[in-house]
Amino acid sequence: MSDNQESTDTEDTTTASRSATLPLRPPCERLSCHKSSVCSRSYFVVVMVFFHVYIINVIGLLFYVHYSSGQEDGTRSRDAPSSGQQRPEARRPPSKAEFLRDVSLTRIEGIRVGHVQKVSLVPDKVHEMRTLSLKPLLFEIPGFLSEDECRVVMQLAQLKGLMESQLMVQDGQEELAKELNLSPDEIFNLLDINQDGQLQLHEILTHSRVRDGIWLTPENLREIYAGLKADKDGNGLLSLEEFRLLSNDAFQRFLLQRGVKRSQLVRNSRHTWLYQGKGAHQVLQDIKARVTRLTRLPSSLVELSEPLQVVRYEEGGHYHAHHDSGPVYPETACTHTRLAANTSTPFETSCRYITVLFYLNSVEGGGETAFPVADNRTYDEVSLIQNDVDLLDTRRNCDKSNLRVKPAKGTAVFWYNYLSDGRGWVGEQDEYALHGGCVVTHGTKWVANKWINIDPDYQRQARYQQLVSQQSEDEDDEGVTLNPDTQSSDVHQDL
Predict the structure, then answer these.
(1) How far is Cα 38 from Cα 7, in angstroms, rounded to an integer?
(2) Is the torsion defined by CA of 403, 408, 411, 414 positive or negative?
(3) How far is CA 409 from the centre of its chain?
(4) Pick from 434, 411, 442, 400: which is nearest to 313 by CA?
């Protein structure tokens, strides 16, 4: 084929040179066709045929796509529900990608300890808000409630009836241990805070207080060791070998046999919950609206939070130092948003972003709210119990706390239990928010708590709010009003 092409090119060149020098031939002679010309024309025809076939195929493909998409649109329009008809489908929590961060939590600045800010909470009145500490961020507002409001809240609580704030010994811990399938070695490692291979008194005390709700002193613990013959060498420490000899509920069984006094409980008080939604007493609704203005948070967050808790401490009543909220880990769910967590977990905690505490009366003696480590330079859990001095013990060592707030009728104090994440949402737990109620030495103490529940997981909080909103719409359609407070009242945790 290449040889024919080369000869053709040579003949064409020769012909061109000859035509430049020879006279034109007659027309009949110019019409004579060469073999090379026939090949060129055939090649051209074949190319054109293939080109047209290609164009026709492209046009056909375009028509096919056009009509196919038109049929799909028609099918969708026929299947889509009309404006008055909704396609039935099961509700499901939206995916995380559906929620954008469009809410930023306002956080009041403390400036410095002793700083006073003017706040307008009710018409024609200005309250003073004083900064009591920066760690935690803590404020005091005298005259937040009037005398009449304090009286009404106490009367409503008495009318509803108060219950014991804590049972003598909590059950169900052994079942939880079985569910987690923890070995004695794993439990030992969990309790060994400083990982020195031995359990000190304060490490066992912390475990017993959280697990059993019993406030044991170092002296009580030594008595239990002797009764259970747990500390073989008598050095006040439990080794792994000694710990293995104890059953999970050894302490509980010993305490039940010996008996537990009310003064040995983590808290000694009675309480009740008061609903603050539609239909509630006007005073309760006014308090909720005032808290919303004070905290400067979206009203929807306050509406979906726990109802008002009212607590009464008789003489001798107390509440040892604690945190209102627990730290949130990946395997932990917030109690109020557990339905929107999309996962099952054995660990739950109350996620209370803000605590607002109201003093409903002035206490004759004791009853201060103590903050043992307020404005400390550092926080170390181990150092809270040293040399038999327990800063968590509000019956013995309340006077050793860094800050104590004396109860005064109508005064409110509020603090943040979490830090900011730096992006306008809830961050890590503020460990300096550790607080407790000092023992009441004379008279009776009445307080009320309003907690603002916010999940540090923004997506989980958004899903929860949407679920409640959808349920509320369904209830409204059926002529029933959804009550967020009563809906969640059975899962409140008294930490």
Answers:
(1) 15
(2) positive
(3) 33
(4) 442
